[in-house]
Amino acid sequence: MSSTTRAPQPPLTSRTPRSPMAPPRSFLWSRGIFLTLLTVFVLVPVYVMISSSLKPLADVTGKFRWLPSGLTFRPYIDIWSTVPLARYFVNSLIVAGAATICSVIIAVFSAYAVSRYNFRGKRVFTVTVLSTQMFPGILFLLPLFLLYVNIGNATGIALFGSRGGLILTYLTFSLPFSIWMLIGYFDSVPRDLDEAALVDGCGPLGALFRIVVPAAIPGIVAVAVYAFMTAWGEVLFASVMTNDTTRTLAVGLQGYSTLNDVYWNQIMAASLVVSVPVVAGFLLLQRYLVTGLTAGAVK
Amino acid sequence: MSTGTNMTTTTASADTGERTVRKNSPGAARGPRRTGRIRRIGLPYLLLLPALLLELLVHLVPMVIGIVMSFKELTQFYIRDWGTAPWSGFDNYKVSLDFNAPVGDALLHSFLVTVGFTLLSVGLCWLIGTAAAVFMQDTFRGRGLLRALFLVPYALPVYAAVITWVFMFQHDNGLVNHVLHDQLHLTDKPSFWLIGDNSFVALLVVSVWKGWPFAFLIVMAGLQNIPKELYEAAALDGAGMLQQIRRITLPSLRPVNQVLILVLFLWTFNDFNTPYVLFGKAAPEAADLISVHIYQASFVTWNFGTGSAMSVLLLLFLLVVTGVYLLLTSRGRKTADV
Questions:
Q1: Is B307 an 8 Å CB contact of chain A?
Q2: From CA A101, how far away is CA A5, in angstroms rounded?
Q3: What CATH number should be reported for the domain whose range is B91-330?
């Protein structure tokens, strides 16, 4: 496919940090074969997505072809009019963006409290928050649906069907993992630093925002990426809790497959367009995610 | 709320210890804040308040409501005002667990499918992820690029990735049949992948494709915490590559794996997005995962009472599995925090 699928080169002995001896030849061979097969497995769907989005309709309705009979950008123009994709896109941006910002801020406060203070109920808090990860989404989908409807009926605050309700829901999805990861990250920031700041007259919040947060930026970035991805990709709650005006991409994209003609080239183009923001962001920031995980979650 | 003396003994002694140090040498202070006692005790709770309130609203209160709902006869007539739905005792549970009647039988089938699917998917994800991470522990040319590539399935939004697989699994114009039937001639005629028994395979492939990079990411991060000296010492002692992996890498990864496998298990078991996008609202019997099954039982038939009872049973099962798993894997290890 591309030059990247070639079997990787054997390591330069001088740059090998792991062992003073060069790895045996059999190891290099199995590594080459394994990584090549894995690359093919990973890349085939990506290739299908990209190539099909550039094909004329005839190419995707007939037998599958590896190479397009001709290249066209038509699908990228048509996607915006076949379904209201722009509106879904804006909805997803608002919901995922707001959920991410709120989730990160709340997680920073919680993680700071757990990392720096001893207080009664600390363990109960961390265990409870983490155990919510275990709940099947389906368990609280129904009650949450009823709760939002009833809150709406009682107070007039429209949570059901609104972006606000979805933001509220999504931010709690990423919260447990974010808090857990940030606790580990904050623990790795030396206490002496923020205690010196406290002695210098900063309040606890001053120490948090001037010392701890700047030192933990990689962890915070990692958490933000995670929160955004969680909200951007969620399907279950979006399918129940949105209406025509607040529909997000996760549900909206399925609108294509309910049309009479299935425009696979357009579906692939739309999938690509909605993936680009998250994949680009993720790949740019994955370095932080790995450092964040190393310092935080994996200890 | 509480005073220092009410806290656990370790906390209290640490606290006083720090205070003494601070009194003696303010410069090297590691002590508590200057602010008042009440503020100092109240502050952590204040910091936790937003998270607590939200978790209460979205997770804990709905969970309690869900448990209450499971004891009610909650059909579409009562949705506007669910409090007025009549109590039905354990009827919903009896219906769900009566394996001779259609509802219970379908639930049991769905449960068994989900267990099989989860075990296979988690096993494969862990295996591929660990192998890739171990193979990529040493630097080689193109490693950074390959690592970024491998993370793409994880970074893609679930629906975009799964829709692409739906296209690939199409009967007439999909890639899978084209390769297996037209190019490799492995099948007599093009197969159906998204209906019938093959759907289980399709679901597994998609799930592993999406899931293994997470295992890769976590194991890779875990590997970075293994001191290089261990490998150097082992190499000097004459340990080969395989022995190093068996004696150093895998044992060092144990704590990471303990959490990783649990998280993978829970996420896969509860996964709704993948089957829902792959098959739509009606999953084929062979790939009828429990989340979609309960969703169906609730929103298609509008019978929330039975749906809630099934959800509660599912939660109980996951609680027991998690508890037993943690007990078994923590034995002989001191696990201060999980």
A1: yes
A2: 38
A3: 1.10.3720.10
Residue among B30, B57, B225 minimizing CB distance to A294? B225
Which of B139, B266, B318 has the CB atom closest to A11's CB atom? B139
- Indicate yes or no: CB of A16 within 8 angstroms of CB of B139: yes
Which of residues 165 through 224 in chain B touch A, CB cutoff 8 A? 165-168, 170, 172-175, 177-178, 182, 209, 217-218, 220-222, 224
Q: Is residue A17's pLDDT more than 60? A: no
The residues, ordered by sequence, that sit 6+ positions from B95 with a Cβ below 8 Å of its Cβ are B101, B103, B104, B306, B309
Per-residue pLDDT tens digits for A175-228: 988 898 888 888 888 888 888 888 888 888 888 888 888 888 888 988 898 899
The Cα–Cα gap between A17 and B206 comes to 35
Please report the domains of chain A, with CATH numbers, ordered by start residue.
3-77 (no CATH), 83-295 (1.10.3720.10)
Q: Which of B154, B290, B133 is nearest to B211 (CA)?
A: B154
d(CA A253, CA A106): 31
Main-chain dihedrals φ then ψ at residue A135, nearest 5 degrees: -65, 135
| Cβ proximity of A180 and A290 under 8 Å | no
- Model pLDDT for residues A106-134, shown as the tens digit of each residue: 999 999 999 888 888 888 888 888 787 77
Q: Scanning every residue of chain A, which has its alpha carbon at the shortest distance from the alpha carbon of B42?
A: A119
* pLDDT tens, position by position, A258-286: 666 678 899 999 999 999 988 988 888 87
Closest CA to A271 of A255, A285, A289, A247: A255
Return d(Cα B162, Cα B210) in angstroms, integer.
9
DSSP SS3 for A16: coil
How many angstroms away from the CA of A227 is the closest CA of chain B? 12
Residues of A in contact with B322 (CB under 8 A): 134
- Hey, is the C-beta of B136 within 8 angstroms of any chain A C-beta? yes
Neighbours of B284 (CB within 10 A): 20
Give yes or no for B233 touching A (CB within 8 A). no
Place of tokens 């690029």: B145
Tokens in use for B222? 């875990």
Measured CA to CA, the distance from residue B151 to residue A46 in angstroms comes to 12
Give the helix/strand (H/E) hosting A226: helix A217-233
Q: Does B84 touch chain A (CB under 8 A)?
A: no
Q: Do B163 and A19 touch (CB under 8 A)?
A: no
